Amino acid sequence: MKRLLVAVAVLLLAACSESGSPTDTGAAELPEIDGPGIRAVLADLDRPAVVNVWASWCLPCRSEAPLFAAARDAYSDRVEFIGIDVEDDRDSAVEFIDEFRLDFDHYFDPRRTVPAELGGFGTPITYFVDGAGEIIEIHSGIIDEQTLALMLDELTG
Questions:
Q1: Which CATH architecture has domain 2-156?
Q2: Using an 8 Å Cβ cutoff, are 108 and 92 in contact?
Q3: Is 18 helix (H, G, I), strand (E, B) or coil?
Q4: Is there a contact between 81 and 18 (Cβ–Cβ < 8 Å)?
C-alpha cells in the first residue's frame, strides 16, 4: 500500500511539473459550448471520438493529461479528441492546454452544461463516442493508461 501511495504521488508530481512550450492558442480561441452545442459537435463526427471533461484546477485532470496527449499522437488519424474545460477561467484553461501540449480541439463550459447533458459525475469525465455520434461508454474519474488503451482499441476495432 505504501508503494502504491508513493507511486501515485510521483505520478502527480511528474504531471504537475511537465511543461510545454507556449503556443498561440489564446483564450479567445477557446470557444464556449453548452449541452446542445456538444450534441451538435457529436452529430457532425465522421469517426469515433474521445471527449474529456477537465479543469485546470483538477489534480486528477493534470495526472491524466499526458495520457490524452500521447493517445492523440497515436490515434489522431482514426479518433477525434475533444476537450471540455468546465468551471474554470479561459486563461487558466489555455495555460493547461499549452502545458500538456493537448493539440486537439477544446471548448469552454463555465457552467458545466456538457456533463449535465451527457451524463457522468465529477471531474474528470471521459466519453467514448462511436462514429455515429453515440456515446458508448462514460468513465467518471481519473482514467488510467490501460483503460484508455482498451477503449481506444474498441473504438477503432
A1: 3-Layer(aba) Sandwich (3.40)
A2: no
A3: coil
A4: no
Task: Kindly report the backbone phi and psi dihedral angles of residue 76, in degrees, each rounded to the nearest multiple of 5, phi listed first.
Answer: -60, -25
Question: First-to-last CA distance in the chain?
Answer: 36
pLDDT score for 28:
53
Q: For residues 84 and 55, is the Cβ–Cβ distance under 8 A?
A: no
CB 112 within 8 A of CB 136: no
Q: What's the sign of the alpha-carbon dihedral 12, 15, 18, 24?
A: negative
User: Which triple of cell numbers denotes residue 121?
Assistant: 459525475
pLDDT in tens, the chain (157 residues): 444 333 333 333 334 433 333 334 445 579 999 999 999 999 999 999 999 999 999 999 999 999 999 999 999 999 999 999 999 999 999 999 999 999 999 999 999 999 999 999 999 999 999 999 999 999 999 999 999 999 999 999 9
What is the residue type of 128? Answer: F
Q: Any bridge partners for residue 50, and if so which?
A: 81, 128
Q: Which amino acid is at 33?
A: I
pLDDT at 29: 79
Largest CA distance in the chain: 47
DSSP assignment, residue 32? B
